[in-house]
Amino acid sequence: MILPIYNCFNPVLRKKTEDITEITQDTITFINNMIETMYNADGIGLAANQVGDLRSIMIIDNTKEEDSKAKPIVMINPKITGNTELLSDYKEGCLSIPKFYEVVTRPSEIELEYIDVNGKKHKLGADELLARVILHEIDHLNGILFFDRITPLKKALAKSKLRKIELNKVIPHYDMMSANNKIIKGVEE
Ligand code: ZN
Predict the structure, then answer these.
(1) What pTM, to 2 d.p., does this model score?
(2) Known active-site residue 189
(3) Other Cβ atoms closer than 10 A to 120
(4) Measured between alpha carbons, how far is residue 87 from residues 27, 41, 102, 152 in Å?
(5) Model confidence over 158-177: pLDDT tens digits?
(6) Separation of 44 CA from ligand 1 center, angstroms?
(7) Catalytic residue among 137, 166, 188, 189
């Protein structure tokens, strides 16, 4: 089932998610809905609170290979355990902030731990785009948005753009949940 993606000005995007203690059938169904929702929106990552849920779950697929079978990475209760001091810049976007892109500086290599859908614990080292998407999604799980990490000057310059997003005047091709919990139907370009 495709779920509406919550607008960044909806309060749920500012809430910290909670670790899962048990993976139930309901958890699996929810994860499958997240995967369907992310691909429908052409995203490369999605965090649970972006679809209005406060479980610590995120999914990632940065492969972008149209003809290979999509294999999303599902991360439950992810925690960063280390990062290099080396930083990199990259222009980010976010399904909750439609059509808004800004350069964000982040560590270029990270280490993390998470559990998969079978409850198995993993340790992973990541760099380049994968590290960036992981850091972006973990920020979501902690109630942080990527525009919190741009310079105050850039943020001031983006004020009117962000205001339009808050007022649902920027409509992507997928359905969104507005800041005050109204469904805004997506529009194909
Ligand atoms: Zn995002």
Answers:
(1) 0.95
(2) no
(3) 9
(4) 35, 29, 16, 19
(5) 999 999 999 999 999 999 99
(6) 9
(7) 137
